[in-house]
Amino acid sequence: MKVMILGHGAIGSVLVKLLSKEKSVSSIVCGDISFAGEKKLGKVHFKKIDLSNEKQLLEFFKNEKVDLVVNAATPVFNEKILGACVKAKLNYMDLAARWDPNPDKKAKSPYKIEQFDFDMKFREKGIMGLIEAGVSPGITNLLARECSEQLDETDTIKIRLLDYAGTDELTFSWSKEALLDEITSKPLIYKNGKFKIVEPFSGEEEFDYPAPFGKRKASLICQDEIGTIPFFIKVKNIDIKDYDNQVDVHKFLYKLGLISKKKIKIGNAELSPFDFMCKVLPEVTSDFSNTKYDNAQFGLVVEAHGKKKGKNKKLRYTIMFPKQKYVNKLKINANFISYPTALSAKAFILSVPKIKQKGIFPPETLSKEVRDIVLNDLRKNKIIIHKTEK
């Protein structure tokens, strides 16, 4: 399989390294605007490309005969890349959607997943577009399907994330803009069969995470999963909450309006608090080798409540990804979040040859055969997927 990776940032750079070790991947083209020119290392060919330039993007696609284009860059490029894939008839995959900053509260789903606008075009060209195929969204969606297929009726799906930075110091493991944008975005929940927009950090609860964390306070966050799962899995309620040991700092920034995107006039210039904080807050941590990050870890729990043969049943899948200390030993310049995301994306990429669907679709629509390929690849990389039933 020949793969093109667009974006060589926190995720793309790690994904390239992981894919280069796979025998089933014969070549990799990595495109990013940061490259000075062209460079080839083994089976990886690095090329400079401006993802915002549609004409250049299409020409790039036509010159590179690949089996799959993976957008590992920011979601703002989703539509341009999707459009170019249609014209070049190339299969597509991405890791996230771009949330609409002005949600339509009257729409069936207030937050629009823009990739679905290309569904018919992809079907007509006979190509596939697997969207939101990282760790969260991605593996979380896949596990939601695993749960629902083992129940006769699914009442509630709870997705609970764990972000532990290993230190109380404010740390940015990747894009400051992306994290601050997530903090300011209002979470979407699905309650009693209807979508609802709620306030950031609301719905706080004590959730029982795997050891050594145990019971921790988790609150609602804005994530892509809620925008797709209710359309493909019959469920009454679904929400996603997160425990983050730096949540108090995030709350402080939000409640004081320090990350508001509303422009204010300063002299002859206009600047938003959001833009200002992106400039003055600590830079993204590029070196996680400091021992203070050793125990930094990302984990997820997908829990489903429903009925099986008339009886109440609860299914729970738990994945705790490696601590930063282990990730450092891999020597791939990854951190406790970029590694799980890239590893999950790699697993989805390896499953692509077995995917028969056409059009645009998220991970919760994948067949059992394909889901097993993804989960088994995680297991091959020493990721333990723990399942319990009650």
Fraction in helix: 25-40%
What is the arithmetic mean of pLDDT?
Answer: 93
The value of Rg in angstroms is: 21 Å
Total count of strands:
19
User: How much of the sequence is in beta strands?
Assistant: 25-35%
Q: Could you describe the largest sheet, including whether it forms a barrel? A: 8 strands, mixed
CATH hierarchy: architecture of the domain at 139-334: 2-Layer Sandwich
- The stretches of 5 or more residues where confidence is low (pLDDT under 50) are none
Task: Output the strand order for the largest sheet.
Answer: 3-4-2-1-5-6-7-18
Can you say what the CATH homologous superfamily of the domain at 139-334 is?
Dihydrodipicolinate Reductase, domain 2
Shape: globular
Give the class-level CATH name of the domain at 139-334. Answer: Alpha Beta
Supply the number of helical segments. Answer: 12
Q: What distance lies between the first and last C-alpha atoms, to the nearest angstrom?
A: 41 Å
CATH overall fold name of the domain at 139-334: Dihydrodipicolinate Reductase, domain 2
Assign the structural class, choosing from mainly alpha, mainly beta, alpha/beta, alpha+beta, or little secondary structure: alpha/beta
Structure summarized in a few sentences:
With 390 residues, this protein is an alpha/beta fold. It is built from twelve helices and 19 strands.
Task: Describe what this molecule looks like in 3D.
The structure is a single chain. This protein has 390 residues and is α/β, with parallel strands linked by helices. It has a domain at 139-334: Dihydrodipicolinate Reductase, domain 2 (2-Layer Sandwich), CATH 3.30.360.10. The protein contains 12 helices and 19 strands. The strands form 4 sheets. The protein has an 8-stranded mixed beta sheet with strand order 3-4-2-1-5-6-7-18, sandwiched between helices. α4 (119-125) links the parallel β6 (92-94) and β7. It starts with a strand and ends with a strand.
